[in-house]
Amino acid sequence: MLSYALLVHAAPYSEQGALSALRFAQAAVAQGHRVSSVFFYRDGVHNASTLMAPPQDEVHLAEGWRALAQEHGTELLVCIAASLRRGLMNAEEGVRHGREAHNLEPPFVLTGLGQLVDAMQANDRVITFAP
Amino acid sequence: MMLHLLNRSPQFDGLYWDLSEAFGADDHLLLIEDACYAALPAAAASLAAFGGRVSVLSEDAESRGLLGRLSDDVALVDMAGFVALTATFPHSLSWF
């Protein structure tokens, strides 16, 4: 059994990379591997939006990520700098920036690139899913 | 031993050239997403530098209507096979 970290650059739905990453993660855990963390970077941070509402007959990427976290303990790490630039923030950042709403909630966690470095060092494999 | 992951179509010929320059003797190339088009016989020149050490992700090829039309030189792998390749190769590099 290997431990994996995934790095997702791809925005949901506009590029295939996010779906590829989710399908890879599901296949990896099905084989008995551990997907310890997924780090969402650049436009990939949009995968974490609480407000994502695709048509019911399409894959719901955010729900897929949440299920991975809940069923397999995968950490969903979201780059805070990339997120704030793109209008994605949790309740704490919403208050800090004087906003009346927020659109990022657990199990997605805002974090920094240091966490990505930690994930790269702590896992057997790091797989990047490009935009 | 490096697993190279490529998601761009052969139209990105500069990217294929850069990849070929970095491709080692023990390396392997997995074509995913739009890179599946490189596995068509008509695009054989784009894969000539990789010595037959090339696979293509079957579900991405199928979603593009390419199954049954791919070059015999390219191995088909499913998503489980993708995972297995990452287990075999200690490092991977994604090109985009």
Descriptive notes:
- The complex is a heterodimer of chains A (131) and B (96).
- The model of chain A has no long low-confidence stretch (mean pLDDT 97).
- The two termini of chain A are 28 Å apart.
- Chain A is of the alpha/beta class and 131 residues long.
- In chain A, helix 2 links the parallel strand 2 and strand 3.
- Helix content of chain A is 37%, strand content 21%.
- Chain A has one domain: DsrEFH-like (Hypothetical Protein Ychn, Chain: A, 3-Layer(aba) Sandwich), CATH 3.40.1260.
- In chain A, strands 4-3-2-1-5 form a five-stranded parallel β-sheet, with helices on both faces.
- With 96 residues, chain B is α/β, with parallel strands linked by helices.
- Chain B has a single domain, classed as Hypothetical Protein Ychn, Chain: A (3-Layer(aba) Sandwich), CATH 3.40.1260.
- Chain B contains four helices and five strands, in the order E-H-E-H-E-H-E-H-E.
- A five-stranded parallel β-sheet of chain B has the order 4-3-2-1-5.
- In chain B, helix 3 links the parallel strand 3 and strand 4.
- The longest helix of chain B is centred in the first third of the chain and has 10 residues.
- Chains A and B meet through helix 1 and strand 5 of A and helix 4 and strand 5 of B.
Structural class of chain B: alpha/beta
The major beta sheet of chain A can be summarized as:
5 strands, parallel
Q: Look up the CATH topology of chain B.
A: Hypothetical Protein Ychn, Chain: A
CATH fold label of chain A: Hypothetical Protein Ychn, Chain: A
Largest sheet of chain B: 5 strands, parallel
Number of helices of chain B: 4
Q: Count up the helices of chain A.
A: 5
Q: For this structure, what is the CATH homologous superfamily of chain B?
A: DsrEFH-like
Structurally, how many domains make up the residues of chain B?
1
Along the chain, the helix and strand elements of chain B come as EHEHEHEHE
Oligomer: heterodimer
Return residue spans of chain A where pLDDT drops below 50 for at least 5 consecutive residues.
none
| Percentage of residues in strands of chain A | 15-25%
Q: Quick one: CATH class of chain A?
A: Alpha Beta
Range of helix content of chain B: 25-40%
- For the residues shown, what is the average pLDDT of chain A? 97
